[in-house]
């Protein structure tokens, strides 16, 4: 007896149908990421890894490369995860307020301030205020200062230009770039500078020339702030490394060596260390997705990108023009920032993003909001869950898909997780470092490009 055969047309139709089913299935699968709940809870319940440094470790670093440390490994000690997170979010809120106040001053044309002769510049120095204590950043590098080099921890910050550290009164103050400072003045010793953070605390001192040793490469005559009147106190960090795009920043002062740099920010649970690199070898060109680096003529410190939409699962959330770009007055836009933790989106962009995420998680039990987070879930007792994939879509067609751990954050050790985005009522939107974790972020000022390379840290 001959086997039953389907008509040729029917066979072809069946094959096409099966092919389409497979394509739809693949697309459906790519629209969701698996979140390993158990592993994340195990990580947040583990003790903080305390960083140690040694001469041997420093010598292992290449000439234009440094390790990047998370602040928790330097100062937190035996503090619960919940407390660390709350303090981190409080610092982050102060950071965002500071950035927005600074932008508003710039756009209003009154950013220049003068330090009067009565400024508190004493002869013995003062307590150090690091950007960390005022919400300036979560990541630090170790850099050599002076000759012979003394190793200091400095905050890594793409949202600042002036590099400064606590030091003794200077003997050779640097006047040539004094007019570039937002807050400046003069006394009998030369140029004064001032930088304020968060709740109004500040560092004031002289603008000087000093040798900074980056890895094993000394950079002579680098203009830095020598902080002699510093309010506040932070354990471990001695100042800040300004990586912004303005003329006084560390990359700008390096000249051709600083036109390209990259950083990798890893959380404290990662087995690898973060890195900060300068030079042509700093970028994983073949594995990066690139988009245009936009320069706001009114705010030249920040690194703006044109983020036109965000894909959430199978839904596309288009962003308003005042989020995807700044207007002719320099108002609006979105920046990539190493110092802000949680991505902030203007309310008219955040609302649709949140609603799209909620639409893709109807099977997950909700939990009460926490701090700046309003979209939370009770995942206790679950091994893994499927959550909608979140991808950034840029104006040139480039797309960056975020790992699930970069947008779902545990807020306690019992199983409460929240969507790690937050709304802002201000004009500036910010891509924060939580969304950047584990991604090599690169800046090429010559080609005006920002790059993102996942799994290259």
Describe this structure in words.
- This protein has helices at residues 8-30, 37-45, 55-59, 72-75, 81-107, 250-253, 321-324, 347-359, 433-436; strands spanning 32-36, 65-70, 113-114, 139-145, 150-157, 164-166, 183-187, 190-197, 201-214, 217-230, 237-242, 260-264, 274-278, 289-292, 294-296, 299-305, 307-312, 315-318, 334-336, 343-346, 366-367, 376-378, 384-388, 390-394, 399-401, 408-410, 416-419, 421-424, 429-431, 439-444, 449-454.
- With 457 residues, it is an alpha+beta fold.
- The longest helix has 27 residues, at 81-107.
- 45% of the residues are buried.
Q: Which blocks of ≥5 consecutive residues have pLDDT under 50?
A: 14-27, 55-60, 115-136, 232-236
- Radius of gyration over all CA atoms, rounded: 24 Å
Shape: globular
Class based on secondary structure composition and strand pairing: alpha+beta
User: Largest sheet, order of strands side by side?
Assistant: 4-5-11-6-10-9
As a percent range, the share of helical residues equals 10-25%
Mean pLDDT: 81
Strand-residue fraction? 35-45%
Count of DSSP-assigned helices: 9
| Ends distance | 64 Å
Largest sheet: 6 strands, mixed, barrel
Per DSSP E runs of 2 or more residues, the count of β-strands stands at 31
């Amino acid at each position: 007896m001959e086997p039953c055969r389907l008509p040729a047309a029917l066979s072809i139709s069946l094959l096409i149908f099966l092919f389409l089913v497979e394509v739809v299935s693949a697309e459906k699968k790519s629209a969701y990421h698996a979140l390993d709940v158990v592993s994340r809870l195990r990580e947040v319940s583990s003790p903080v890894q305390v960083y140690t440094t040694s001469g041997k470790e420093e010598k292992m670093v290449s000439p234009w490369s440094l390790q990047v440390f998370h602040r928790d490994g330097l100062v937190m000690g035996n503090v619960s995860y919940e407390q660390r997170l709350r303090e981190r979010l409080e610092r982050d809120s102060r950071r965002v307020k500071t950035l927005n106040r600074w932008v508003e001053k710039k756009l209003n044309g009154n950013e220049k301030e003068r330090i009067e002769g009565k400024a508190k510049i004493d002869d013995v120095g003062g307590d150090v205020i690091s950007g960390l204590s005022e919400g300036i950043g979560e990541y630090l590098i170790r850099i050599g200062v002076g000759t012979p080099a003394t190793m200091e921890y400095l905050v890594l910050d793409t949202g600042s230009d002036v590099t400064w550290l606590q030091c003794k009164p200077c003997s050779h103050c640097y006047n040539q770039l004094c007019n570039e400072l937002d807050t400046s003045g003069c006394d009998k010793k030369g140029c004064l500078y001032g930088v304020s953070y968060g709740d109004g605390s500040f560092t004031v001192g002289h603008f000087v020339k000093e040798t900074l040793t980056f890895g094993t490469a000394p950079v002579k005559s680098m203009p830095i702030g020598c902080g002699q009147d510093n309010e506040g106190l932070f354990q471990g960090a001695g100042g800040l490394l300004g990586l912004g795009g303005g003329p006084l920043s560390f990359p700008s002062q390096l000249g051709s060596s600083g036109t390209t740099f990259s950083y990798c920010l890893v959380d404290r649970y990662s087995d690898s260390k973060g890195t900060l690199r300068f030079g042509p070898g700093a970028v994983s060109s073949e594995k990066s997705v690139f988009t245009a680096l936009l320069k706001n003529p009114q705010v030249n410190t920040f690194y703006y990108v044109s983020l036109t939409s965000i894909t959430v699962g199978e839904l596309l959330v288009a962003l308003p023009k005042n989020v995807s770009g700044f207007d002719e007055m320099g108002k609006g836009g979105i920046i990539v920032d190493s110092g802000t933790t949680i991505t902030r989106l203007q309310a008219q962009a955040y609302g649709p993003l949140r609603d799209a995420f909620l639409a893709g998680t109807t099977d997950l039990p909700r939990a009460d909001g926490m701090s700046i987070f309003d979209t939370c879930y009770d995942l206790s007792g679950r091994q893994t869950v499927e959550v909608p994939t979140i991808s950034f879509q840029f104006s040139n067609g480039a797309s960056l898909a975020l790992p699930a751990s970069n947008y779902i954050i545990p807020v306690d050790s019992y199983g409460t997780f929240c969507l790690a985005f937050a709304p802002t009522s201000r004009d500036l939107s910010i891509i924060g470092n939580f969304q950047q974790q584990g991604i090599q972020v690169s800046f090429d000022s010559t080609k005006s490009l920002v790059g993102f390379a996942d799994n290259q840290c």
